[in-house]
C-alpha cells in the first residue's frame, strides 16, 4: 500500500510581525517569514534563540504577544491547535507507553471518530511507509529510539496535515541513526508533498534537509536563504560562524586588508603557501582520512585550515604562510558585523 500525496490545498505559512514575550523576556521579536507551500523550512539557531517558540506559535501551542499567523489564506491566531491542520512532532516522541504501535498511530484518527477499519488501513499505510509494519503490536518500550521516533512521525502522517512542525526530532538518536533518519525525512517530504517546518540547532541537518534555512539569533532572524546561499554569502559574522564546520575564520580589521572591516575565510578557502600574507603557528593537526584539519594561531586568532588528504601537512610547532585568495574572502562591518558586499 502506498501513501498518496495529499495537501489538497495550498499550505503556505506566513508570519507577520510576530513578537512573543514571557514575563518580560522577549523570546522572539518582530519576525516576518513567508514559508512556501510544500517547502522544507528549517529554523536554525543556538539554544534560547527562540526557534521553538516560533514553531509553537505556528502550531498554536503558544499565542503571539503581537503579530499574525497565516496558514493558506486564513489568519489562524484564534484557531485552536487541533483545528489548524498542523501536526507537531517532538524530540521526546510523546508516545502513549501502554498503547501498542498500532494504537499510538491510530490515536489522532480515533479522536476524530474515524471508523475502526479506516483507521487500521491508514495506520498500516503510514507505518509501512516508515518501515514499521512488523512492529504494530509492540509497545513503545520494546522499540529502539529510532523506531519510536518513526512511530511519532507515523502518528503525525495519519492526520494528513497540511503542515508538519518538527522540534528537534532527531536529537535523541545516535549519530548513525540520525544520518539515516535525515535521509528518511527528505524522502518523506518528497512523498507527502506537504509543508515541513523543522527546528534544529544542528547545521548539518539544516544544510542537508532544508529547501531554505531561517537562521535565528537572540529572537531575531539573521538570514533566510537556501543552504547554499547561506553558506556562500552569510549575512553576518554570526551566520558565517554558525553554518559550516569548522566555522569560518575571522580576521580583525586591518590585519589582511586596510580598512575598518573584518575579513572572513572558510577553512577550505585558505591555502598553505610560503609566500602567503598571513603567518600561522601550527598547534594541532587532525588526520580525518579524507582531509586534514590544521589548527594554529594567526596573531591572537585561532585559525583552522582544511588540507586535502595525501598532501604533505605541516606538523605541530611549524610556522607556515597562509594565502586567502580574493574569491574566498568575506567582508563584514567591524561594528555591526553585517556583510559588506562590493
Ligand atoms: P532550545 O534549543 O534550547 O529549545 P530555542 O531556540 O528553541 O532553544 P525557545 O525555547 O524558543 O528557544 O526560548 C526562547 C527564549 O524564551 C529563551 O530565553 C527561553 O528561556 C524563553 N522562554 C521560552 N519559553 C518560555 C516560557 N514558557 N516562560 C518563560 N520564558 C520562556
Shape: globular
How far apart are the termini?
A: 55 Å
Helix content: 10-25%
Residue windows where pLDDT falls under 50 for at least 5 positions: 1-7
Query: What class, by secondary structure content?
Result: alpha+beta
What is the helix/strand order? EEEHEEEHHHEHEHEEHHEEEEEEEE
What does this structure look like?
The chain has 342 residues and is of the alpha+beta class. Helix content is 25%, strand content 32%. A hairpin with a 2-residue loop joins strand 4 and strand 5. The termini are far apart. The structure holds adenosine-5'-triphosphate. The site of adenosine-5'-triphosphate (ATP) has 13 residues, from strand 2 and helix 1.
Task: Give me some keywords for this one.
5-stranded antiparallel sheet, alpha+beta, single chain, globular, binds adenosine-5'-triphosphate, 6-stranded mixed sheet, 18 strands, 342 residues
SSE map:
Layout: E1 13-22, E2 25-35, E3 40-44, H1 51-59, E4 66-71, E5 74-75, E6 86-90, H2 101-111, H3 116-129, H4 145-157, E7 163-167, H5 175-192, E8 195-200, H6 203-209, E9 212-217, E10 220-225, H7 227-232, H8 237-242, E11 249-251, E12 261-265, E13 271-272, E14 278-287, E15 291-298, E16 301-308, E17 319-323, E18 329-333
Parallel strand pairs: 3-8, 3-9, 6-7, 7-8
Antiparallel strand pairs: 1-2, 1-4, 4-5, 9-10, 11-12, 12-18, 13-17, 14-15, 14-17, 15-16
The structure holds adenosine-5'-triphosphate.
Amino acid at each position: 500500500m502506498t501513501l498518496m500525496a495529499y495537501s489538497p490545498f495550498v499550505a503556505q505559512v506566513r508570519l507577520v510581525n510576530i513578537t512573543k514575550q514571557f514575563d518580560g523576556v522577549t523570546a522572539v521579536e518582530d519576525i516576518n517569514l513567508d514559508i512556501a507551500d510544500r517547502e522544507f523550512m528549517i529554523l536554525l539557531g543556538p539554544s534560547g534563540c527562540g526557534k521553538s517558540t516560533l514553531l509553537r506559535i505556528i502550531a498554536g501551542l503558544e499565542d503571539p504577544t503581537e503579530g499574525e499567523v497565516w496558514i493558506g489564506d486564513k489568519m489562524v491566531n484564534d484557531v485552536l491547535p487541533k483545528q489548524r491542520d498542523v501536526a507537531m512532532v517532538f524530540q521526546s516522541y510523546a508516545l502513549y507507553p501502554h498503547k501498542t504501535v498500532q494504537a499510538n498511530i491510530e490515536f489522532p484518527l480515533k479522536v476524530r471518530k474515524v471508523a475502526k477499519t479506516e483507521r487500521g488501513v491508514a495506520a498500516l499505510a503510514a507505518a509501512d511507509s516508515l518501515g514499521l509494519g512488523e512492529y504494530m503490536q509492540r509497545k513503545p518500550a520494546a522499540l529502539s529510539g529510532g523506531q519510536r521516533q518513526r512511530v511519532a512521525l507515523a502518528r503525525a502522517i495519519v492526520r494528513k496535515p497540511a503542515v508538519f512542525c518538527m522540534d528537534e526530532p532527531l536529537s535523541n538518536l545516535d549519530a548513525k541513526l540520525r544520518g539515516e533518519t535525515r535521509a528518511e525525512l527528505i524522502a518523506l517530504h518528497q512523498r507527502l508533498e506537504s509543508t515541513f517546518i523543522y527546528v534544529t540547532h544542528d547545521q548539518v541537518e539544516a544544510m542537508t534537509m532544508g529547501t531554505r534555512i531561517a537562521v535565528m539569533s537572540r529572537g531575531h532572524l539573521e538570514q533566510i536563504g537556501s543552504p547554499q546561499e547561506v553558506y556562500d554569502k552569510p549575512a553576518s559574522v554570526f551566520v558565517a560562524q554558525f553554518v559550516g564546520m569548522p566555522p569560518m575564520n575571522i580576521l580583525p580589521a586591518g590585519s589582511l586588508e586596510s580598512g575598518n572591516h573584518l575579513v572572513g575565510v572558510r577553512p577550505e578557502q585558505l591555502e598553505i603557501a610560503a609566500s602567503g600574507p598571513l603567518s600561522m603557528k601550527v598547534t594541532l593537526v587532525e588526520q580525518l582520512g579524507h582531509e586534514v584539519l590544521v589548527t594554529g594561531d594567526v596573531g591572537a586568532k585561532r585559525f583552522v585550515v582544511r588540507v586535502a588528504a595525501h598532501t604533505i601537512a605541516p606538523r605541530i610547532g611549524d610556522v607556515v604562510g597562509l594565502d586567502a585568495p580574493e574569491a574566498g574572502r568575506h567582508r563584514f562591518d567591524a561594528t555591526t558585523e553585517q556583510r559588506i558586499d562590493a
